[in-house]
Write a structure and sequence with these properties.
Blueprint (H helix, E strand, L loop, with lengths): L1 H16 L10 H6 L9 H6 L1 H10 L1 H4 L12 H4 L9 H12 L5
Helix pairs in contact: 4-7
């Protein structure tokens, strides 16, 4: 049931945000110096970073492992929280943020 809610959200919510330009379009060398977060880093950037993706799979595998997550790549985890609150609670987002902040800078 939870996966159906997530899939439904991704199908509906990604459309209005698809055209949204993110600040994460900087070259990869500039992105490496930026700290990752659930509020400011788009899902695509998190998924494209192997260490960040491992953190997402640890704390929110229903989101990170979802086949339709590509539709929400330009969104942040914080922005989809209202639609997936049972998966992305404040506590889970805090754990993800703590692990992201612990990643070594490149």
């Amino acid at each position: 049931m939870r996966n159906n809610v997530v899939l439904g959200f991704l199908a509906l919510a990604a459309v209005p945000f698809a055209a949204h330009a993110t600040e994460q379009n900087a070259p990869a060398t500039q992105q490496a110096a930026v700290k990752l977060s659930t509020a400011d880093t788009d899902i695509g950037t998190l998924l494209d970073n192997p260490a960040a993706k491992a953190i997402l799979m640890k704390h929110a595998p229903e989101i990170a492992g979802n086949a339709q997550i590509a539709m929400a790549r330009s969104m942040t985890l914080k922005s989809i929280q209202p639609y997936a609150g049972d998966i992305l609670s404040d506590a889970i987002l805090a754990k993800i943020d703590a692990d992201l902040q612990a990643l070594p800078g490149k």
